[in-house]
Specification:
mainly beta; 188 residues; rod-shaped; five-stranded mixed β-sheet; single chain
Length: 188
């Protein structure tokens, strides 16, 4: 009987795999369970010699997004300026999940409750997702971040909103009448 050996290299190097002979005795089937996204190299040897085309490659994709494995970075905000939230979506094995902006949702509670939230976009450079809102009032906002309909750990997040820099268009002044030689009060 021939000796068949299968081994896994690459992202899932060392993953367990064992050949199984079928009832006809000429075809073998085997499987392995990858847990890391990336590229695997499957080496197949018959009687110690690689078969034609070996090693074979298998591109392993991330699995479905899991909120409990995902995270969010919610900074403090400044009234009148966008606050950008960075969400890292991961699968059940901790792999970053690309192409899933529809799995991310955010809402604003607290001082700026109901503030409009921007559409979620993917930052392909680091496989994170970005969304933002612009608070208008100072105080504490409660930012709820969900992945796949479930809140990520730590959600809702507190974002302390401070006042922004002065705006000439939104500033007013009160100037009282004055008397020669006396101080005239001006309130801005």
């Amino acid at each position: 009987m021939s000796s068949l050996a299968v081994s896994i290299g690459g992202a899932n190097a060392g993953a367990g795999v064992a050949p199984v002979e079928n009832s006809a005795g000429t075809t073998y089937r085997t499987a392995y369970r990858p847990t890391t996204a990336g590229e695997d190299a499957i080496t197949i040897q018959l009687n110690g010699t690689p078969i034609s085309g070996s090693p074979y490659t298998s591109a392993v994709s991330a699995s479905t997004p899991v909120a409990a494995q995902s995270s969010a970075l919610v900074p403090n905000g400044v009234a009148g300026s966008p606050t950008t939230i960075v969400v890292t979506v991961r699968d059940g094995f901790g792999n970053k999940v690309p192409g899933a902006p529809g799995a991310v949702a955010m809402s604003v509670g607290g001082t700026n409750a109901g503030a409009p939230v921007s559409a979620v976009s993917e930052n392909a450079a680091d496989t994170t997702y970005l969304t933002s809102y612009t608070p208008n009032a100072t105080g504490t906002d409660d930012i709820t971040v969900e992945v796949g309909g479930n809140e990520v750990p730590g959600s809702p997040f507190a974002s302390n909103v401070t006042s922004g820099s002065g705006s000439p268009a939104n500033s007013t002044a009160s100037v009282n009448g004055g008397t020669a030689g006396s101080a005239t009060n001006i309130v801005i």
